[in-house]
Amino acid sequence: MQRHSSWTALACAVLAFASLQKFPGLSGMLGSAGWIVIAYLVYRHPALLAAGEKPWRQWRGPLIALGAALLLVIGSVVIWSLGR
Predict the structure, then answer these.
(1) How far, in Å, CA of 41 to CA of 33, rounded?
(2) Which pTM value belongs to this model?
(3) In terms of C-beta density within 10 A (0-12 exposed, 13-18 middle, 19 or more buried), how is residue 65 classed?
């Protein structure tokens, strides 16, 4: 499982770099920050990718961080679209 999470974390890191290159300014920084947080969470907690039953009470912190990271990525898209 750790191998899959490493590849997924690497893909998220590449998306973070691409976000900075493609979208300069605030939207790129927000998107990059969101992808970096997602990459860290996937690498640090590989069970987030696993199928099956999860003990949600033990995952409260990582799930809150994942939600915040997704809000950063969505916020970057909203800011980018308003700036166009």
Answers:
(1) 12
(2) 0.84
(3) middle
10-35 burial, b if ≥16 CB within 10 A, otherwise e? eebbebbeebbeebeeebbbbbbbbb
Residues 39, 64, 58, 52: what is their CA dihedral angle, to the nearest 10 degrees? -60
Q: Which amino acid is at 69?
A: A
Q: Do residues 84 and 39 touch, judged by C-beta distance below 8 A?
A: no
Q: What is the pLDDT of residues 25-74, one digit of tens each?
A: 899 999 999 999 999 998 888 877 777 766 667 778 888 898 999 999 99
Whole-number Cα distances in Å, 28 to 51, 56, 72, 73, 77: 31, 32, 10, 9, 9
Q: What ranges in the chain are assigned the alpha helix state H?
A: 2-22, 26-44, 60-83
Q: Give the closest residue to 76 by CA, choosing from 22, 40, 39.
A: 22
Q: Which residue has the tokens 């992808």?
A: 35
